Amino acid sequence: MARVVLDHLSKAFRGPRGESIRAVDNAAFTVEDGELFVLLGPSGCGKTTTLRLIAGLEEVSAGTISIDGQIVNHVAPRNRDVAMVFQTYALYPHMTVFENLAFGMKVRKFPKAEIERRVAEASLILTLGDCLERRPEALSGGQRQRVALGRALVLRPRLFLFDEPLSNLDPQMRAQLRAELAAIHARLAATMIYVTHDQVEALTLGDRIGVMRDGAIQQVAKPMVLYQQPANLFVAGFIGSPSMNFFRGSLYRQTAGVVFRQPEANDPTGGNPLSLPLQLPAVPLVDDFVGKKVVLGLRAEDIRLRAPGSEPGHGFSVNARVEAVQPLGAETHLRFSSGGDSFIARVEPAVHPALGQSLSLLFDMSKARLFDPASGNAIA
Asked: Of 91, 193, 214, 263, whose Cβ has the fewest other Cβ atoms within 10 Å?
């Protein structure tokens, strides 16, 4: 397999008026040998361009790409020993499944017996044994994507590159193929780089995830680190469904410690401003922000209903009025407002309060995150 290192990689394209458009901006990260690394971000953030640079399909503007210690900036794609699976299946319509799977090996002049053996192995892994004599037009979308995956598998490259390979499938098929792809990775212990805009795919597939925005890497971490300790407001808002709740206010020092307080809202329907005691580890930066504006972030599952007459426990009690109720089967999302900021609490599916009803909520402030509103970076 392979270890891939991107060192301050950039790619700029020429715009319609001759201006330079930077698609990848100083990207730097390492993909370890045998790792399934996911590049995650919104459309147009530079994920696919990064993948194409690694594959050699685009020319590097600045920085280096190394595979197993060898800089490959000027190595032809066919000599990089990588296999890429595209968003579109790109199957040859006049060939059978067997011929599609075997084509890359035939071009490389593999022995016939080796071609047959590898196709048989791939068809077994991908459950394509009954489809080998069919042409792509006779296959379902899921089967076509399996063939596209199989074309990469049979070559046994040192590096697999996946460019949103499941985005054209329905949700049920996507979930099935995600599980199959994870099983294939575990079986082959292969190095894989997987590009997607779907955070569910990223969180369920990736050993680590690199979050991109406007061509720049925002954070690289394990899935739960990204979820629980986002490096900035963008990562906090992009990861999670629903995304993290944000409350804008300032920090004040009181006798009992530091308190987060929302400003008075101009909107009379915005609810009472929050005043929440911080329960964060001692971080010097927090002291630096006392008396200054901050953004407080809290996940929907860290805001829960308080049972009547119960003690707050580890939470801080807040009263708020219900603005919207969204049943989702396994859970219900309740939307509230406070100090002009809307926020969502994730509650049990049986909870269906009336709109406008006042509820007592518990904020688990030990899970709160603080961000600098100017830079967007995490404070604590």
From this structure: 263
